[in-house]
C-alpha cells in the first residue's frame, strides 16, 4: 500500500473516471421539441445518481487499482447534493478513508477543479471531480452537457505517471456564465462576449506556460471551458486540441479531458491543459514510463460506448422538468441522523463482520456469529469492491420507485456473505440466476431534504466481472 504523506513535491500517480450508463440521444430532444437536437448522444446520470455517488465510483475505481491513503480528499463540483453540508465526507466514508484524513468541498464553478488540484498537489491528496449538468429543456446546456466524474491521486514523484512541469493562472471577472442559489439551470451571456475575452487569455496562457516549461509546443493539447465558443474555436487556435470527450462536464471537465489523453498518450510526451473559466488556468505535464502500465483499466472512450438509451420523457422526469404522477404508494420517511451515524461503516463502505472462529461473513455486521455462536470475536471487512452472483431476484412493479420497476436481487458474494440489494441501471431481462454483479454507490431516495445513500447491485459484463473481481 502506498501512503501519500505530506511533502512539497508531488506528481500525478493515478487516475480513474466514471461515466454513468445512460445515454440521451440528441435526435430525441429535437424530435420531441421540434428543434434541431444535433447528432450523437450525451451521458446522463440516472435518477439515483448525483455528484457524490459518481465521485465515489471514480475514487473507488482508483483506489481498487492503486491502494493508497491520500494526505487529504478534495471534492469539486458545481452540482453539490447538499448546499450546507460537506459532500466530501460521504465520499470519504464510502471509500473508507481514515477518520484523520481531511476532506472538504470546493464548489461554485468549474474553476473549483483547479483549486482542488492545487491543494491536493501540495498535500499529496486525492482530487475527486464530479458533476451532473442540467439545462432547460431544449437548451444548449442540456444538449451539449455531460455527466461524469474523475479521481486524480497525487503522490511521490518516483511513482509518477505524469509530472507537473509548469502551471500558471490568470483571473478575469466577466459575466459569461452564472447560476443563482436554488436555481436548477444556469444562464449564459451571448457566447461571443466570453470568447473575445477568453481567446487572448488562452493564447497568453499557452505561450507563457510552455515557455516556463522550456517548450515551444506540446504533444497533446486539452482545452476546456463552459463557453461553447471556446470549445468550438479551440482546435483552430491550437491545432489538434481536444476537449472533454462527453461535452461540458462542469468541474469534471478538466479531469475528463486530461484522462482521455492519458488513456492513450505515450511515455515521455507533454500535455498542455488549458481551462478558460473566470480567467484561464494552464498546466503542462510530462508523462512517464509508468503510465503505460498504470492507465485506468477502462478508457473513457470505452466507458462512453458502454451505454443504454433513456427516453427523453424519462430523462426530463429524472431532472424534475416533467412533473409526472408518482407511484401511488407512501413515500419513504426521512433518514434519521443517529442510526445513520451508528451504522456509518455498513451504510457507506458496505462493511460487514467476519467471525474469527469459523470465518462466516455477516451482512450487515453483527456481534454474535449466526453459524458458530461465538460472541464479540469479529473482524470488520468492507465488501464495497467485491463481486458476486445473483442467487435469486424479484421484479416489483408496485413498490415506490422514481423509475419502476424496482428489481431486488439476493447476491452471494465471492468469498462469503449474502445480502438482498436493489439492482441499479437494469431491466428485468438483464437478470438471471448466476449473473455476475458488482456494487455501485447510489441514492436510494431523498425525503425531507435528506439523501439516503447506500449500495446497489449492478450487472457486470463478463469481461468486467473478471477485471473487477481481480481487484477485490
TrEMBL record:
This is OB-fold domain-containing protein. Residues 384-442 form the ChsH2 C-terminal OB-fold domain. One of its GO terms (molecular function) is acyltransferase activity. InterPro entries: ChsH2_C, NA-bd_OB-fold, Thioester_dehydratase-like, Thiolase-like. Residues 323-342 are annotated as: Disordered. It comes from Prauserella cavernicola. Residues 323-334 have a biased composition (Basic and acidic residues). Pfam families: OB_ChsH2_C (PF01796).
Amino acid at each position: 500500500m502506498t501512503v501519500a504523506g505530506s511533502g512539497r513535491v508531488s506528481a500525478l500517480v493515478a487516475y480513474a473516471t466514471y461515466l454513468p450508463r445512460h445515454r440521451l440521444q440528441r435526435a430525441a430532444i429535437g424530435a420531441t421539441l421540434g428543434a434541431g437536437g444535433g447528432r450523437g448522444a450525451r451521458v446522463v446520470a440516472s435518477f439515483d445518481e448525483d455528484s457524490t455517488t459518481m465521485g465515489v465510483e471514480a475514487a473507488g475505481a482508483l483506489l481498487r487499482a492503486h491502494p493508497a491513503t491520500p494526505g487529504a480528499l478534495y471534492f469539486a463540483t458545481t452540482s453539490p447534493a447538499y448546499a450546507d453540508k460537506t459532500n466530501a465526507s460521504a465520499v470519504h466514508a464510502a471509500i473508507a478513508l481514515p477518520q484523520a484524513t481531511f476532506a472538504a468541498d470546493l464548489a461554485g464553478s468549474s474553476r473549483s477543479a483547479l483549486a482542488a488540484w492545487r491543494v491536493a498537489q501540495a498535500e499529496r491528496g486525492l482530487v475527486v471531480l464530479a458533476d451532473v449538468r442540467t439545462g432547460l429543456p431544449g437548451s444548449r446546456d442540456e444538449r451539449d452537457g455531460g455527466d461524469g466524474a474523475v479521481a486524480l491521486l497525487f503522490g511521490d514523484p518516483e511513482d509518477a505517471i505524469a509530472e507537473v512541469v509548469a502551471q500558471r493562472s490568470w483571473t478575469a471577472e466577466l459575466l459569461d456564465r452564472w447560476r443563482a442559489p436554488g436555481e436548477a439551470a444556469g444562464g449564459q451571456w451571448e457566447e461571443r462576449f466570453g470568447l473575445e475575452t477568453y481567446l487572448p487569455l488562452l493564447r497568453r496562457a499557452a505561450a507563457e506556460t510552455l515557455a516556463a516549461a522550456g517548450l515551444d509546443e506540446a504533444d497533446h493539447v486539452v482545452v476546456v471551458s463552459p463557453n461553447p465558443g471556446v470549445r468550438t474555436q479551440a482546435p483552430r487556435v491550437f491545432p489538434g486540441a481536444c476537449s472533454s470527450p462527453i461535452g461540458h462536464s462542469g468541474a469534471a471537465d478538466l479531469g475528463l479531458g486530461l484522462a482521455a489523453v492519458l488513456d492513450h498518450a505515450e511515455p515521455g510526451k507533454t500535455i498542455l491543459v488549458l481551462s478558460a473559466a473566470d480567467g484561464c488556468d494552464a498546466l503542462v505535464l510530462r508523462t512517464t514510463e509508468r503510465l503505460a502500465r498504470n492507465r485506468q483499466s477502462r478508457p473513457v472512450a470505452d466507458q462512453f460506448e458502454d451505454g443504454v438509451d433513456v427516453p427523453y420523457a424519462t430523462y426530463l422526469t429524472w431532472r424534475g422538468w416533467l412533473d409526472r404522477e408518482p407511484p401511488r404508494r407512501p413515500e419513504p420517511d426521512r433518514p434519521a441522523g443517529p442510526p445513520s451515524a451508528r451504522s456509518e461503516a455498513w451504510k457507506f463502505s458496505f462493511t460487514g463482520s467476519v467471525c474469527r472462529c469459523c470465518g462466516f461473513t455477516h451482512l450487515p455486521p453483527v456481534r454474535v456469529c449466526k453459524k458458530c455462536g461465538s460472541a464479540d470475536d469479529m473482524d470488520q471487512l468492507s465488501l464495497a469492491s467485491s463481486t458476486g452472483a445473483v442467487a435469486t431476484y424479484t421484479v416489483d412493479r408496485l413498490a415506490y420507485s422514481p423509475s419502476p420497476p424496482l428489481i431486488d436481487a439476493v447476491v452471494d458474494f465471492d468469498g462469503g456473505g449474502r445480502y438482498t440489494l436493489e439492482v441499479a441501471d437494469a431491466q428485468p431481462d438483464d437478470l438471471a440466476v448466476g449473473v455476475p454483479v458488482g456494487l455501485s454507490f447510489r441514492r436510494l431516495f431523498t425525503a425531507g431534504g435528506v439523501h439516503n445513500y447506500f449500495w446497489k447491485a449492478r450487472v457486470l459484463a463478463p469481461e468486467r466481472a473478471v477485471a473487477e473481481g481481480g481487484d477485490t
